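Annual report, structural modelling task.

Input specification for the LQZAQKY5 complex:
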Amino acid sequence: MIGYNDALAILRNVCRPLPVQRLACAPGLVLAEDVFSDAALPPFDNAAMDGFALCVGTAGAAAGSCYPVAGAQAAGDAGLQAQPGVAWEIMTGARMPEGLDAVIPVEQVEVLERASDGRALRIRLQADLPQGQHVRRAGEDVARGERVLTAGTRIAAPQQMLLAALGVAEIAARRPPRVALLNTGRELVDDPMQPLASGQIRNSNGPFLAARIADAGAVLVVRETVADDPADFLNALERALAAGADVLLSTGAVSMGRYDFVPDALRQIGATIHFHKVRIRPGKPVLFATLPGGALFFGLPGNPVSSAVGLRFFVEPALRMLTGLPPERPLKLPLSAPYGKRQGVRVHLKGRVMPDAAGRLWAQVLPGQESFRIAPLAWSNAWIVLDEPDGELPEGALVDVYGLGHLLGLQVEGSCA
Ligand SMILES: Nc1nc2c(c(=O)[nH]1)N[C@H]1C(S)=C(S)[C@@H](COP(=O)(O)OP(=O)(O)OC[C@H]3O[C@@H](n4cnc5c(N)ncnc54)[C@H](O)[C@@H]3O)O[C@H]1N2
Ligand code: MOO
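The model returned the following structure:
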């Protein structure tokens, strides 16, 4: 049986990034090339405050100085040339009139004279005004030609904001992978309203994995439940491929039981099985294959937590490889209590990361680590991963911690005080 690192090396060899396309900017795309700005941000000098714009030079202007006001400049008004010695009323974001170099906020100005429409005609400064005050300079945020985003960045709202500000309509990117999910097992019931017959259980892996696949930046194109019949399974596989799936996932039927048909069914259609069974817990029977047309196939074990580990530690790294995201790195956090690791394999533990009263984070191994126990999974907010070999870990030992999803980060709420 291979170890996790060898399995990951096989994934790296097999998973080729999806083709690069020119696509309209949208959250979820992963940049395939660096983005350089062909505009400056801000695009022109503008006011950071509502007030009055003046030319004060390097000496600045002193409190008490008086100025006539030539007019008003609002956001959206085109540039204009200011005459020496006059002020312009100005609004936040308005283009600075040419020749003016400082803005005094309206709160620091006394209006000495107003027109009949209320417009200020003459002002006195109530504070000193240094050159450059409250002026946002062109290019201060982003210079023209600057590299603003690097290849391998996933577009989320902040990147979308930057690209929108720069007027970038299209990027060289990789689309989200398309994933199909087939849950196998004649015991499974999908309809929550359907009473369970003897021996039946509800399909809980299906909704869990569907939600996790969306969180993992992929698009679920097919989700089916199939009985323990290889022919039904292969038909469902065909439908998934016809729907354009890049990655196919199955749950169940991948271990040693009499009805564990997935490996044989895959061989029957000429799939290449790269590995089956990895030295991990839970999730040992995980299988990875390439289908004849090139689509990737992951056979996840049926036990609920085993399917979760299969998705998090095999499928999600593969999704990163397909989209050109760099490998994930775990956080290192201290264990909240001693833990004796005796499983003889790499383990993925349902964990809870919580801040103590001082705000320091601790990683707790939750009780109930068996792979059929889903209640502790619902209380977990992290995976604690302990690699081979075994050993006694004292309280405070630094361990590898992963968020629940590769794009979710660590979501810490509440406190254990
Ligand atoms: N003799 C051996 N038996 C088992 C071994 C082994 O090495 N030798 N491995 C065990 C391990 S570890 C795992 S994990 C499971 C994996 O089995 P399968 O992948 O073949 O899964 P099934 O037998 O179909 O189901 C296992 C378990 O999970 C429940 N299940 C399945 N699908 C769902 C679903 N969609 N929602 C909720 N629960 C599901 C199913 O009812 C079974 O209880 O094999 C061990 N056995
Ligand atoms: O490895 Mo199984 O996934 O322990 O239950």
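Residues 329 and 402 are 8 Å apart (CA to CA).
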